[in-house]
Amino acid sequence: MFAVRIHGFGGQGVLTIAELLTIAAVTEGRYGQASMAGGPEHIGHPTVACCRIDDDPLPGWEPVVFPDAVIVRDAALLHVSDVFHGLGADGFILLDSARDLDDFGLPRLTRYRPERTISMPASEIAQRELGHPLPNTALLGGFAALTGIVSIIAVETAIRERFAGRLADDGIEAARDAFAFVRYTERRRAGLLPVAQAQE
User: Fold this and answer.
1) Do 143 and 71 contact (CB within 8 A), yes or no?
2) CATH number, domain at 45?
């Protein structure tokens, strides 16, 4: 089983991210389960959603205590709550921020594998593609690139199932842009880009 915990503030749509990720997993023939942890959202308060993905049917809902991946919807949470609680050293971290993770001065981050942690300007990508800084679909695209747990095609299918028309089209573009951003960052880190391109 692959477990994901999504942290945000109430009203930021963390459950939507979990539900879309679940739909993406189901479209690829697996089982998925999304739920809020700790009850309903309260606007402006830290809130957590969970998603579990498995090749076998999932039992009754359980909170995700030891996630394989953590998505942080709002960087302000890094200094408010322990968003990395239970995340092993091999876990994935995806943060919505234009700032590098190192800029937040969190010594605990050094225990995680650099190639599995990334900050990504998901809100900026959403602003460009959607006209407002709601980064849920961008975060899903980045998550697909970072983890490989679901494909970008499955993410696009999930967006189409949840939204319609222009909203779906723009959401898919945001997901694709975020996917490309993470893949570019991975290649740059690995030294696989020409020097001139890597310095852009």
Assistant:
1) yes
2) 3.40.920.10
